[in-house]
Specification:
mainly alpha; 2 domains; three-stranded antiparallel β-sheet; 6 helices; about 60% helix; about 10% strand; globular
Length: about 160
């Protein structure tokens, strides 16, 4: 017997695909809903086996707090970077920093790298081949150890708690 989980492995992705399809064609005619529904079922079925398993979300409320923290950090970092750019007499101190990872899951490492890159002033440049460290570029950093500790406390530890790694 075919279970719903077997023919619809990612229901949220399927709904998102259907919604995006309807936005692209700018129509909610029955034919477009039907075609979008077929695509929303077939695409995840054909691609699901290529995806990594996502770690279990252990503390969803902590995830909300994490997202709010990242949004606040993005907001404040935008002003800091704008101030650095607007003051041409101030010499920047750019650095490449090797950040040792505590995370082991590829999904959570990707979330951490994306979070670092979203925050203005830092860019996650490379994941080392051994998967144990990230190469990060900081636009203006005086103390490498302080940046490493700030990333660990603000982003990596909460991700470890959220996804129970």
């Amino acid at each position: 017997m075919i279970t719903p989980r077997r023919w619809l492995p990612t229901p949220l992705l399927s709904l998102l695909l259907l919604f995006v399809w309807l936005l692209l064609v700018r129509s909610v005619a029955f034919g477009q809903i039907f075609l979008g529904g077929v695509l929303a079922i077939i695409i995840p079925l054909l691609t699901y086996r290529f995806w990594d398993a996502q770690p279990r979300l252990g503390r969803p409320l902590l995830l909300l707090r994490f997202v709010l923290r990242v949004l606040r950090d993005i907001f404040t970092a935008n002003f800091e970077v704008a101030w650095l750019i607007a003051n041409p007499w101030r010499r920047l101190n750019p650095h490449f920093i090797v950040y040792p990872l505590m995370l082991e899951e590829r999904f959570t490492i990707t979330l951490l790298a994306s979070t670092i890159s979203l925050t203005p002033g830092t860019v996650s440049a490379n994941l080392r081949m051994d998967g144990k460290s990230l190469l990060i570029h900081a636009l203006d950093e005086q103390d490498e150890d302080a940046l490493i500790e700030r990333i660990r406390e603000r982003y990596e530890r909460p991700l470890k708690e959220i996804y129970e790694c």
